[in-house]
């Protein structure tokens, strides 16, 4: 039987050290917001109700295509990964769900569910994997999967996705994310139209296997592993997929999957407007699909994405419930610390976006007052919302300072003794 790893007493005693300071910071921010007509309690309650899912593959140390340097206490499999995810949730109270990757996390669904239940965790979208070959598979994905020229290879990839749905149903997931690396490295290597047609045909088969209350998310990525062309390369293609498949199909936006300088927040707005935004893989990047910690490179862009989400929430867009998930690879940090920090950064962007004075912003836009419109965003972004984030954690039983509490718990040291030193990291080298 799984048990929670961080003692409640430790969280309480660490919180006691900073409780008075937290209260005074929270009260001061409350007074300041009140002067601008904002009720801090409304913001805190919204932040406390905002959750982001942790990727199972993110709790192991990641790597590059050159090397992987495992840390102490690397998870040996999905059950260790769930234990690590529970630590993140215990301290942040922002990550009650885990997103699984099959076959990396393949195990008896009953045991998966029991282990997660005991830790108080649930499951977000399932992720299929047809971008690498599993040990026992008959047909290779070297030249593609759902868009492969060979029907038998496509069928194998379709069956794998249906298996992911079946596992997901057994553990309480409600969505399947499909990302394929299919593409080509040379002009002429593949026929753009035919490979997209084959991809759509395969996805239609998977779509047919979706339970009524499930959604399917297609995830686009400009390049890598294919370096000349990629079958699902941008949001335009992604929108066509969702539109072609039907009402249960939506687009997933991974923040690292775009050309440099792409206006991602505008893509988010378009997908919302045309009712096809399915969810996110949050991370940050400088050059490509770097999978760096959310908010670590361009926190303003993260804020601008949330500005669109809050705008939609405010306008009461019907059936608007995008899935919020993290997709990162931690190569030089303790993955648990990175995920704690990322969950907080994502909540921070949400809290800041909630502070935008939308009425004033709308008026500045209508007046063509570019400077003041931009200033309304900056004003919200500049607000230090940390006391709100800490308060949301504290009230839900988490830590005022989750990283300090995590370090104090010596959890890494403890699991380093229990789990043998291994070469295993996240899921493969990602
Ligand atoms: C592809 C990707 C996709 C995979 C994950 C491991 O780059 O973003 O979401 O499932 O990485
Ligand atoms: Mn992703
Ligand atoms: Mn990626």
From TrEMBL:
Pfam family, one: AP_endonuc_2
EC numbers, comma separated: 5.3.1.-, 5.3.1.14
Keyword annotations from UniProtKB, A to Z: Isomerase, Manganese, Metal-binding
InterPro entries: L-rhamnose_isomerase (IPR050337), L_rhamnose_iso (IPR013451), Xyl_isomerase-like_sf (IPR036237), Xyl_isomerase-like_TIM-brl (IPR013022)
Stored Gene3D superfamilies: Divalent-metal-dependent TIM barrel enzymes
MF-aspect GO terms: L-rhamnose isomerase activity
Record domain Xylose isomerase-like TIM barrel: where: 95-291
UniProt cross-references to NCBIfam families, sorted A to Z: L_rham_iso_rhiz (TIGR02629)
Full protein name: L-rhamnose isomerase/sugar isomerase
Species: Phyllobacterium ifriqiyense
């Amino acid at each position: 039987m799984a048990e929670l790893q961080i003692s409640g007493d430790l969280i309480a005693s660490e919180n006691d050290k900073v409780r008075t300071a937290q209260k005074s910071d929270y009260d001061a921010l409350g007074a300041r917001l009140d002067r601008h007509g904002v009720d801090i309690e409304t913001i805190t309650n919204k932040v406390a109700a905002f959750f982001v899912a942790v990727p199972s593959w993110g709790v192991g140390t990641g790597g590059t295509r050159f090397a992987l340097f495992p840390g102490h206490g690397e998870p040996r499999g999905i059950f260790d990964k769930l234990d690590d995810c529970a630590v993140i949730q215990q301290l942040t109270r922002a990550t009650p769900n885990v997103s699984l990757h099959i076959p990396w996390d393949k195990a008896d669904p009953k045991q998966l569910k029991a282990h997660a239940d005991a830790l108080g965790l649930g499951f977000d979208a399932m992720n299929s994997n047809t971008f690498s070959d599993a040990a026992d598979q008959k047909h290779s994905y070297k030249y593609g999967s759902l868009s492969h020229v060979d029907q038998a290879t496509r069928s194998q990839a379709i069956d794998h996705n249906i298996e992911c749905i079946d596992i997901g149903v057994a553990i309480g997931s409600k969505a399947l994310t499909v990302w394929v690396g299919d593409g080509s490295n040379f002009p002429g290597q593949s026929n753009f139209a035919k490979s997209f047609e084959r991809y759509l045909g395969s996805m239609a088969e998977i779509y047919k296997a979706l339970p009524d209350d499930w959604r399917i998310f297609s995830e686009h990525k400009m390049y890598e592993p294919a370096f000349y062309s990629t079958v699902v390369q941008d949001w335009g293609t992604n929108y066509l997929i969702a539109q072609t498949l039907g009402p249960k199909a939506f687009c997933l936006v991974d923040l690292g999957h775009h050309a440099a300088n792409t206006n991602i927040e505008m893509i988010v707005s378009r997908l919302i407007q045309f009712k096809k935004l399915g969810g996110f893989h949050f991370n940050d990047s400088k050059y490509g699909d770097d999978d760096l910690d959310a908010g670590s490179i361009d926190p303003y862009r993260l804020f601008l994405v949330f500005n669109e989400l809050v705008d939609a929430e405010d306008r009461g867009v019907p059936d608007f419930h995008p899935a919020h998930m993290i997709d990162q690879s931690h190569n030089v940090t303790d993955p648990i610390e990175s995920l704690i920090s990322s969950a907080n950064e994502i909540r921070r962007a949400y809290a800041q976006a909630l502070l935008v004075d939308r009425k004033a912003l709308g008026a500045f836009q209508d007046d063509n007052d570019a400077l003041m419109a931009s200033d309304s965003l900056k004003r919200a972004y500049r607000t230090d919302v940390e006391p709100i984030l800490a308060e949301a954690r504290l009230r839900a039983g988490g830590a005022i300072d989750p990283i300090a509490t995590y370090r104090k718990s010596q959890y890494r040291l403890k699991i380093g003794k229990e789990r043998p030193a291994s070469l295993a990291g996240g899921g493969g080298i990602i």
